[in-house]
Write a structure and sequence with these properties.
Layout: H1 5-60, E1 79-91, E2 107-114, E3 123-129, E4 142-147, E5 158-163, H2 166-211, H3 216-236, H4 240-266, H5 274-283, H6 289-322, H7 328-357, H8 359-367, H9 372-376, H10 379-412, H11 425-446
Antiparallel strand pairs: 1-2, 1-4, 2-3, 4-5
Amino acid sequence: MTHGAPPTDHSHAHGHSHAHGHSHAHGHGKAEASSRRVRRLLALVLAPFALAALVGVGVFYPFGQHLRSEPTLGYGGKAPVEGKVLSSNRGSCTSGSTGSSAGDGDCLRLRVRLDGGPAAGRTIEQVIPAAPGTPKFAAGDAVVLSHSGADPTRASSYQIVDFQRGTSMVVLAVVFAVAVLVLGRWQGLAALVALGLSFTVLVGFVLPAILAGEPPLPVAVVGAGMIMFTVLYLTHGFSARTSTAVLGTLLSLSLIGALSILFSALTDLTGLDENTSTLIGALGTGIDTRGLLLAGIVIGALGVLDDVTVTQTSAVWELRKADPDLSWHGLYSAGLRIGRDHVSSAVNTLVLAYAGASLPLLLAYSLSGRGFTDIVTSQAVAQEAVRTLVGSIGLIAAVPITTAIAAGIALREDDTTTPARRTTVAERVRRAAQTGATLTTLGGKRR
């Protein structure tokens, strides 16, 4: 009797284990099928927009067109020439002056060596009135002069208009890249690659298309779409989570575009300012200045939208992982609470960024003695106000939109099937590097 007892217990245990394993496999199969349906649905929703962006590039890009360049733009119609300050002294504004005369008084007398242009290697003298707004010059400063086109050997044919900043900007860019890599490592590398691709889309597609005469707003929408799909999937990998963030960004960006069209028309914004007028003069042809304003709003809002939608999506997925029993309403409510804190700081950042960029303009209007209403409703300030408010509304809307979509997708997405698909490009690079190092080590041991 006792001899037969263990087989009975063993068969029971074995049967229980088999039943449990069968039940788990059955549940896993349902979840995996659900995950496949979710991913298929997201692909069906996003694929037409990705295709439209690619078709838009083909339609708007100026294939075969020669874009006229204007090297004198920004230099008063004069050719830029690089130079280097050899000495800087204070002296009379008239004695031996070869530059602009301001009468007897205190002036800066600069000896400048021309490093470019038709008189490269020649040293000229520039006399600049020492006014309160005059920049400070010292020996060794790299400067840019404008050449009027007259006799290149005469100092009066030149005027200092700017400093050279190439080396300093490169150093700053390197420091930025190092900071991103130190903190983000492989993810930071992917972010830098994505940033480079964004810059490539702007410089290689958006700017040439607009300069070729294509409507600025549709071009900006296509460019924003290319940046959105490329950057988000490259940085965060191909997964339902990333696709949710892309969908939230797409809907919020559409809202921003619609609101910017509506309120730019209601407020009669023309988009004309000093920079736009200079551009029109250089092009010699008309350009849709209001469309250019709207294009700037769409592209400017995209970067902040990416941050909000990715954060909201990640928050919902982490909430789902921490408490798998949460319902859609529970996930949405918890995610919305997180989003409120995030969006308040994001809106504040957006407003302060625009205010900081427009600070000289605001100071000038403050000195005009005009009332607050007159200042805010002026063309220059009103377009920045519309830009800020429309962008902020889009940010606010992005939180509930993305959170609602993420909560619905997260409930139907099986976490056990996603890790491999969530692998980002940075993770693949890291794994490849580790695999290569391991193989090298093993090969060395074999020797």
